[in-house]
UniProtKB/TrEMBL annotation:
Name of protein: SPOR domain-containing protein
Domain of life where this protein originates: Bacteria
InterPro entries for this protein: SPOR-like_dom, SPOR-like_sf
Domain SPOR: residue ranges: 64-137
Organism name: Carboxylicivirga linearis
Pfam families assigned: SPOR (PF05036)
UniProt xrefs under Gene3D superfamilies: Sporulation related repeat
Length: 145
């Protein structure tokens, strides 16, 4: 049971990697100056991990969090979204901004985080300029994490 728990924790920690072809082999690779890891597990675990990686690739990302700055619709929606994006870039030039249109709403979101807690420092800074911004759950691309 103890070994199974360690494997599950390892899978959760590394299982989101879309780059690894076989996580078990990657972890067990001998690297100079590092310790040796040997994993004894059922072949079904590799299958489940490969299935999870493929599903994440199919969905285009993983569940994560972003900070929503704007959501609007109507004739002014797009213009307001672009104005918000411009303002964010002026104040936070390194911010990863996502502008989306999902009819009828234009949305401007910033950042990509695995959990809500990681978004809080930027949320605090953004509140000065966008007092109504808040953290939302959504799909984030692995490359952005």
């Amino acid at each position: 049971m103890k070994h199974f728990l360690i494997i599950i924790i390892t899978c959760i920690g590394f299982g989101f990697s879309t780059k690894a072809q076989n996580l078990t082999e990657e972890v067990q690779t001998i690297k100079e100056g590092q310790g040796v890891v040997t994993i004894h597990q059922d072949q079904g675990i590799d299958f489940l991990m490969e299935t999870m990686v493929k599903e994440n690739e199919r969905k285009g990302g993983v569940d994560g969090y972003q900070i929503q700055l704007f959501s609007g619709s109507g004739p002014q929606g797009k213009r307001n979204a672009m104005d918000v994006k411009t303002k964010v870039l002026e104040e936070f030039p390194d911010a990863k901004i996502t502008t989306t249109y999902n009819p009828p709403f234009w949305r401007v979101r910033v950042g990509s985080y695995r959990n809500k807690h990681e978004a809080l420092p930027l949320l605090k800074d953004l509140k000065e300029f966008f007092p109504n911004c808040y953290v939302v759950k959504g799909m984030v691309r692995m490359e952005e994490l």
